[in-house]
Design goal:
This protein is α/β, with parallel strands linked by helices. Helices cover 39% and strands 18% of the residues. Strands 11-12-10-13-14-9-15 form a seven-stranded parallel beta sheet, with helices on both faces. It starts with a helix and ends with a helix.
Amino acid sequence: MDLVPALEEPLQQPLKSVLGPATAKVMAEHLGLHTVGDLLHHYPRRYEERGQLTHLADLPMDEHVTVVAQVADARLHTFASAKAPRGKGQRLEVTITDGSGRLQLVFFGAGVHKPHKELLPGTRAMFAGKVSVFNRRLQLAHPAYELLRGDPEESVETWAGALIPIYPATAKLESWKIGKALQTVLPTAQEAVDPLPESLRRGRGLVPLPEALLKIHRPHTKADIEDARSRLKWDEAFVLQVALARRRHADAQLPAVPRRPAPDGLLTAFDARLPFTLTEGQQRVSREIFADLATDHPMHRLLQGEVGSGKTMVALRAMLAVVDSGGQAAMLAPTEVLAQQHHRSVVEMMGELAEGGMLGGAEQGTKVVLLTGSMGTAARRQALLDLTTGEAGIVIGTHALIEDKVQFHDLGLVVVDEQHRFGVEQRDALRGKGRQPPHLLVMTATPIPRTVAMTVFGDLETSVLDQLPAGRSPIASHVVPAADKPHFLARAWERVREEVSNGHQAYVVCPRIGDEEDDPKKAGRKKPPESPEDAAEKRPPLAVLDVADQLAKGPLKGLRVEVLHGRMHPDDKDAVMRRFAAGDTDVLVATTVIEVGVNVPNATAMVIMDADRFGVSQLHQLRGRVGRGSAPGLCLLVTEMPEASAARQRLNAVASTLDGFELSRIDLEQRREGDVLGQAQSGARTSLRMLAVIEDEEIIAEAREEATAVVAADPELTGLPALRTALDALLDEEREQYLEKG
């Protein structure tokens, strides 16, 4: 059954436009709204009460805002300029107020006549424009405005209490124009088909969809808004969870080869070599994975583990179990540095077991090969041969593993490290290399709150490693306010020297490499900064090459300082990492290439320059590179942001806890929902317009249960045509990508 045609009607069509062609064009290009249904689902961001005015005191700089305020005064000035040399130039300055603050509006030239007549003191209106600063005062230049005139019949009370929807708008289309367009299409909301099964809707006391759409766009009371929101949140959560439940159901129908370790095989030999015992968490997660591997449909498991919780060990044991059963295992890493690092540590952990078929190799051993894009031809040819013949049981590589040329003898398990960096096409391309679908283990060191895991990784079962291995040291973290207290920064470099004199090593992390071409156009336009915060924001981020040079000549003179960044030749990167791992380098000045997987137990200190330029999760990841041995770790977060700034509060949060799950909540609360769901990477608009992943944990968990039950009873949704339609709308190409991006 199709969606009711009224809602599918394009806003813009050659013969008959639902809206004016210019408006429809802007909606399509700037807001991604193409049909009547799209526009009905473009919900207000918030509501203004006419009697209550927006806080002008809290206006964000450089953002497009809509405010409701009253004109306090308006003055017309004349001035001389190049265009109007005889003093005929006109400038209208209007001051508006809302009780919390004042804001200046300015109009020039011919644009002054209409506002001069209309914006008289005492007039109330909605104003929209981009907030800028002139002479240290906030202003809107040439804002669009809409006068708020109460109908003569309307009593003052109803007029003042009316709720004005404020829509997400753009510079080309103000909120009230979107509101007028909605007024045109709102009658078609009656024809909206309800995707929720009737029993679920009634059981949860949710209003029907047409009613929810009317109430969200034209609420009479705040209770109307609440009713509409609860209903629309359920729609989003439920349709998304049905999509994920269907994926899980489809995956469960696929055949896979059960992989069980041999009784006295490679895994047993490996465990016997281990110089330590696995943590309880590692043992528990291993049991979950081995149980999945032993079934005849593919495992789909997400392994979340705090930085340094021993995920690689768990993944390696799963890979060895698969090799034991006659299959091969592939590990996909996001960068060459990380692939090489994993390869080195796996070979070290396995010892002679990694030399299968070689002189001196263990009898039950296998070959562990590395495959990256920059390998020499001969080494690459040999690696490909080892994979085709099955000689290599384990391969570790970058996306070079996905190329068509790569053929496996019998691929049984794919381990994807740092999943959020891989698109689904890559994941599926690798899975397609098995004779039957291989088992899949996805690892991430970015702690993900339970709801996000249910939403983003909803097609995967989840295991969590939250216990650090014995012998791991605590990491002390401190914020270093370089601008307020320069002597703190001097002390930070002294601390680095102390660590080195005690036989340890240190990282210094910078946001930028530093060999980028400077844009001469930008250089000529420097304005004096407005405040310390602006100054810190406007300065380009500190760069590896500059900082390394300054340190080697200054505070760290005499120490062995090297640089590492993503634009170096892979062989050079590897050589630098080897020297650092061997202890031949004291201080490594690097970009975030060291963020994941780099393991040098002797490195005890990390200084992160311009720490405010990194996200919370990224800082937590970086910090996890120190304190990996028996000596305590130290992480110094250097910033020039002032004490009261949001950036400083974020850094204080990172310094105050080592709990990655707590930090990931802070991180998500400070970011937009779309970023959380990987939309920043895929460029698609998030399909969640109403649902907030952190706040609506309960709805998501309940929707997941309901969706699983619905799909189990009717996998093809034949009895629920309206739900099927809503699902097809969600799973157009962009959304498909969104679901799978994870």
